[in-house]
Amino acid sequence: MLKYFQSSVSWWLSTYSQNGFFCAHAGTRGTVCGATMGQLTSKSASDAAESNTVPGIRFTSHGDPPPPHSSPRTDPGDSGPNLQIPGTGGGDSERQEMRRSSIYSTIDMVPKLDFYAGSLSPRHVRPSLETLRRPTPFDDGVWVNNSELSIPDVLETEGTEPPAGQKAPVRFGWVVGVMVRCMLNIWGVILFLRLSWITSEAGILLTCVIILLSVVITSVTALSVSAIATNGRVNSGGAYFMISRTLGPEMGGPIGVVFSFANALACALNTVGFAEVIRDLLQEFGLGMVDAENDVRIIGVITVSFLLLISLAGMEWEAKAQILFFVILLISFANYFVGTLIPPDEEKRSKGIFGYRGEIFSDNLMSKYTNGNDFFAVFAIFFPSAIGILSGVNISGDLKDPATAIPKGTLGAIFLTTLSYLGICVTIGGSRHASGNVTDVLLGNSTDGCKGVACQLGWNFTDCMDAVGADGCQYGLAHSPKVLGQVSGFNYLITAGVFAASLSSALGFLVSAPKVFQCLCRDNIYPYIGFFAKGYGKNDEPLRAYLLCYVIAIAFILIAQLNIIAALISNFFLCSYALINFSCFHASITNSPGWRPSFHYYSKWTALVGAMISVGLMFAFSWRVAVATVCIILFLFAYVAYNKPQVNWGTSLQAGRYNIALSYSVALSRVEDHVKNFRPQCLVLTGPPNQRPALVDFVGAFTKHISLMICGDVLMGQSRVATETDGMVKWLNKRKVRSFYTPFDSDSLRGGTRQLMQAAGLGKLKPNTLVLGFKTGWREASEESLVDYVNTIYDTFDSNHCVILLRMMDGLDVSDHFGYEGEKLFRRHSPLSWSRAPGDATGERMSSQQVRTAFQNNQGKKTIDVYWISDDGGLTLLVPYLLTRRKNWGQSKVRVFILGDEQNMEEGRQEMISLLKRFRLDFHDVIVMTDSERTPQPKNLKRFEDIVAPYRLNEEQQDGASESELKTLCPLKISDKEMEALRTKSNTKVRLNEIIRRNSEHAALVLVSLPVPQTDCPMSLYMAWLEALTSGLHCPVVLIRGNQQNVLTFYCQ
């Protein structure tokens, strides 16, 4: 029994393992089914059978088929071996659920989330249509019931679970991971060190306006971020990841660079703020090191080095530090608001703090700008306090559920921090300019010579208000950054809050910048940055990117000027906010079915307004910095657009292009045809385009950026797999040919071409011209193949389409150039020898190899000779004109040859020149051929007779048979009667070839009017005419014929 089982498994493994799925019928005992995991061979199956455990195989009994909604299993009453997949026994309910089948078939599976979780590397794969379509197998005449075929096992990617003994990565919820992190970054140094100064400059009202305007921008951006974040799984990379996956790498790449840089600057900003506080504390105790500015530099470098060590310790330690900072900040805020309720003592009054007094609030209500400041200058310094809303987004890869955490955490942080900013702005307005001298109290009721609202409260700060520099007022909103500490209940708790705010923000940005930059580096959009993509540890920490961010932060810490750094950061973040909002707007406006955010509380129009406000504020803050930012973005954009990285992220730009193409195609269908708008829309029978590059280049030369080009590949007796089709498209793109590639299955070239001409294209974007190569080896071709080829030309004429034939003296097929046995032109063949499986090196080389052709070379001042023998509507003139618009053919001189006689030669020439001028065709010369009716040379006539000789009917073939019967039996044969009737036409073709060879020996290209055969013209004779017209030339020859309708006009309407 075991031996029979092994042989059965071996046979079925070899049959079904090709697509990773197999079912084995084990005699009368049951059916063995499963999926090959990796490369499972019959030998491994046999070895597993010996141990009664077959990997990837399930056993089901014939006696009791399983219900259709459950996985097949062995009948408990069966005495045969019970075979199961290791690790998927009956106790593993999850695996059993995963293998549940549809009621239609046990191979067909019910919908599962696992099939959609990760489209790039899915953990589980559903059976293909090929698998579902397979016929039910038989074994020794016994039919294996389809209901007994097992569901294929799933394919699981490696690394979905951490190895045993290794800790899982740290993941955060919406409170700790997003809301707390955003609040800590919003509560930065601007709040503690600059908000009081901003209030003194802009006044309480305008400061509230600044805060609310910032909230509008951040709230709209947060809504856009929430929509994008809930439209699919967001990985690490934050704003860069969202913008690049929405707008594409062209916009995502520049923002990734700028946003990473801006985060590094934000780290420097908060570090400088912390260093200023430490410096002031040291100066209070007389412990200065060098001077005020260099002390900030020294303290800043030491601080950012300490923060780097925390970051290198990992996200877990960084999160614990952030929680500690958050608690300190809450205590600091409580201390401040309680302090505003405590009546100020004499020392506080001497520093300009009088509590809630209406006189002071009224005086501080309006703006009092100094030192040339204005509203936008003050706004630019405040705005960095609003840049923390993306802190949670930037570590999206470390969140448990980014789609839920980002909206809740970000919007919650904006709401709470807005209340705190407004509260501090209003309450801090009870302070004014002061000297800090307790002796400046007014004695008596006299206020003569006293300035300011403090006079009404019994204090005279006139002297310090009139003085400047060191003698001026050292306290109050406009002069002291320590007002919050002076108002609070306990000053040093505010200092602790400054420490917590600056350090937490600096630490947050020091973590965010490397995370974003790591994602950018891994996408390989820009060169030379892949070194920073490497991650370490369970959380994939970007240690190298940490060091880069550290170096950038130190460079800007050395500036040691908080206001300068703040103005730079504002522009970079406003640019990021503008693109985030535009991403949301663009994704919404394109109506892509893939845009389905679960967060619905957003509007595409508010997103657009948010983007416009952000751009406007960039230029309002500092137009110079804004222009520099835009230039950087454009430079980075141009680089990505030029290199076109090979990524496919399903962006809204792709959806937008589809919408635009669809809208214009529908609109074009309503436009009536006009001769002025005629374009040669070509269906080019190239077969595989990479085997006939000359044909592709010729048509591409006069259709690129002008008209439609479709490379048609009629597949006779074969099929083209998707990977090969993609390879053809990539070959065309690499060659910079603007063309579609359309393979089509058909029994014959004639049938396939007819159906392509009818079905290819869309609306008015349909072919009106058929382009094919000349059948060079037509005399050696089979009768069936030649008849198929000629009938294709005949059908094109009958369908009122234009026809173009290209003949290269060396032939069009270059497959032999690569050493492959390629298909010959339009010949029925077996599947191509270069058909390949994905990843095959030979096939990849074939699809990417580029052969240079004559149509890619610069032709210099060579001539393009046009033999306009028959008036076809002007296509014969239009194609060379379009060629001369290309760079390679721009200097070529076009000569037009026409028929005429010696008596009227000059008159005919002038008439043609006049016509060409009215057509606005700047051709070089017109030549009249007056000797076209002469008899051809005998040797040329002899050569033509030799060509048609094999197709002449001899007397024996004609005896006893009618002409119609002969045409049916021998369609290529030429009777003597037909030969004599068409001899004059034949001689004309031979004579014309003599003229062409004499006049166009050194031409770069020759175009000749293609003769239209009558229905009674023998096919072989017609091919002999084409051979006679084009033989003996060393340059490419084009036989061209319009559909007898005008394609040129000299009228304006």
TrEMBL record:
NCBIfam families assigned to the protein according to its UniProt record, in alphabetical order: 2a30 (TIGR00930)
Stretches for region Disordered: 44-97
UniProt KW keywords: Membrane, Transmembrane, Transmembrane helix
Membrane topology, record value: Multi-pass membrane protein
Compositionally biased intervals (Polar residues): 44-54
TM region positions: 172-193, 205-231, 251-275, 296-315, 321-342, 375-397, 409-429, 490-510, 545-565, 601-620, 625-642
Protein name: Solute carrier family 12 member 10, tandem duplicate 1
Location within or outside the cell: Membrane
Gene Ontology BP annotations: cell volume homeostasis; chloride ion homeostasis; potassium ion homeostasis; potassium ion import across plasma membrane; sodium ion homeostasis
GO cellular component, as recorded: apical plasma membrane
Single Gene Ontology MF annotation: sodium:potassium:chloride symporter activity
Domain Amino acid permease/ SLC12A: 177-683
Main location: membrane
